[in-house]
Amino acid sequence: MAPHNGALQVVRACVVGDPGTGKTSLISAAARGSSWAAPSRSPVPVLPPTRLPPDHNSSGVPCVVTDTSSRAEDQQVRRP
Asked: Is residue 3 a part of any domain in this protein?
């Protein structure tokens, strides 16, 4: 969260979970302002960071949501 004069400017969230649980579908539905539906069985590409407008929540603060991939081939190897 980024404070500015004691008030929040933006909330940042990251959606993580098991493969096929609908992480990307959930973010897409929130961005469209529609209700969430069960994910499809076909793989969906990971979304870029998605900004939800302030009117999408009761606090009136914009939210940036980051999608993640659970696929092993998308994971980066971290080196010490």
From this structure: no
Task: Show the low-confidence residues of the chain (pLDDT under 50).
Answer: 1-3, 78-80
How far apart are alpha carbons 58 and 45 in whole angstroms?
29
* 63: in domain: yes
Kindly report whether the global pTM for this prediction surpasses the value 0.70.
no
Task: Collect all residues with Cβ–Cβ distance below 8 Å to 8 and sequence separation of at least 6.
Answer: 1, 2, 59, 61
On whether the CB atoms of residues 48 and 38 are closer than 8 A, the answer is: no
Domain that holds residue 46: 12-74
Question: What is the tally of structural domains in the chain?
Answer: 1
